[in-house]
Amino acid sequence: MAGILGSGIQDALLLHPINYQWAKDLYDQAVANTWFPNEIQLAQDLADWDKMTEEERHAFTFLISYFNPNELLVNKALAFGVYPYVNAAECHLYLAKQMWEEANHCMSFEYILETFPIDRDAAYNSHVETPSMARKEEFETKYIKRMTEETVDITTTEGKKDFIRNLIAYNIILEGVWFYSGFMVALSFRQ
Fold first, then answer.
1. What residues contact 63, with CB distance under 8 A and at least 6 apart?
2. Closest CA to 74 of 159, 136, 150, 8
3. Cα gap 176→178, rounded to integer Å
4. 69 upstream amide cis, omega within 30 of 0
5. Whole-angstrom Cα distance, residue 53 to residue 160?
6. What is the pLDDT of residues 17-53, one digit of tens each?
7. What's the rounded Cα separation, in Å, for the pair 79 and 13?
8. What pTM was computed for the model?
9. Is residue 160 part of a domain?
10. Which of 14, 15, 39, 67 has the least C-beta neighbours within 10 A?
11. Span 103-133, pLDDT tens digits
């Protein structure tokens, strides 16, 4: 059995035998949890919007403005920075489903932007025009470029370290810290 990391081109063409059952289990779980943004009725949310203060509306719009482009950034990190370095077909299945989920999240934010009375141009441009957002995006892009545009030789110890460093940058920092900080703002609206 080849290791989980490699070129991903020639060694990941068959699902059987499954070498990483956890990846197949994650794939099956992700498929079972499939949902679509337009299935969610937003009538109550629109009624709540009308009750929000300007500060709350600003916070909500700011979050959507941040999440929307960064979901695509996560997708790029997976597609170009992880998928090509994985050998196992079952891991490819799960990564493909995860990329679909990230695209679905992006479409969820699009659905909100299309439904709520939000200045869409301002929302789309704020990730570039807001200095803190732009710096976060630059930080992430630096690591994604290292994963995609530079050659990461994961057959070497240094290459594996670089691969892990890039995973930490997008997965722990972007997804774990920055996204969940935003979720906490959204959850505070219940208070």
1. 182, 185, 186
2. 136
3. 6
4. no
5. 49
6. 899 999 999 999 999 999 999 999 999 999 999 999 9
7. 17
8. 0.84
9. yes
10. 39
11. 999 999 999 999 999 998 888 888 888 888 8
- Name the amino acid, one letter, at 16: H
How many Å apart are CA 85 and CA 108, to the nearest integer?
A: 29
Q: How many other CB atoms sit within 10 Å of the CB of residue 140?
A: 20
Looking at residue 115, which CATH number applies to its domain?
1.10.620.20
4 pLDDT band, cuts 50/70/90, is confident
Mean pLDDT of 60-87: 87
Sequence-separated (6 or more) residues with CB below 8 Å from residue 147: 77, 80, 81, 82, 163, 166
> What's the number of domains the chain is made of?
1
Range of the domain at 122: 21-190
Asked if residue 2 is part of any domain, the answer here is no
Sorted by sequence, the CB contacts under 8 Å of residue 177 that are 6+ apart come out as none
